[in-house]
Amino acid sequence: MNVVCLDMEGVLTPEIWIAFSEATGIPELRRTTREEPDYDKLMKYRINILKEHGLGLKEIQDVISTIDPLPGAREFLDQLREHAQVIVLSDTFEEFAMPLIKKLGMPTIFCNSLVIGENGEVLDYTMRCEHTKLTSVKGLQAMGLETIAAGDSFNDLEMIKASKAGFLFRTTDAIKADYPQFPAITEYDEFLDAIVKAL
Prior knowledge:
This protein is of the alpha/beta class. The chain has a domain at 2-13 and 71-111 and 129-198: HAD superfamily/HAD-like (Rossmann fold). Helix content is 42%, strand content 21%. A seven-stranded mixed beta sheet has the order 4-3-2-1-5-6-7. Strand 3 (108-116) and strand 4 (122-126) form a beta hairpin. Helix 3 (57-64) packs parallel to helix 5 and helix 4 (73-80) packs parallel to helix 9 (188-198). It is globular and about 50 Å long.
């Protein structure tokens, strides 16, 4: 049995931090895992910026409530789920993801959690486990399942490399150049066809 493991932000939804950066006018928050491979470094950087500007979970969630999935993502996901089980593996947080997951038709998602203070301040974050995406894929494989993985960022590469087939979707030119062995796709119809052929 095959399980398709997809990243969320950049593949199915816009990047939450970029949307928040645009809404707040804080350009430093545009930095994502496409540019920074060290997730802990990136999150500490983000949390410090939030503190500097007095912003917390409520302000982020207010912006998330205005975000819709990428055009065509819901239809792509619905069609893909007719062919295979799908799990969204994301390094985002449950406090961010749930409104978007509802708009995507409630696919299964494995993600992380934030540590929130009494006043709504983002204090820290908790990862489900180390190397969350790779660990999830390895766990599925240990149960006798085969995985196909796709994403757009540095933090997706481990699960892509560990799967029987892997794809880059709307990734950066730098990642495409460094990983030419993985098909780089930009349109959902081609993406669906490629995954179905790999099943």
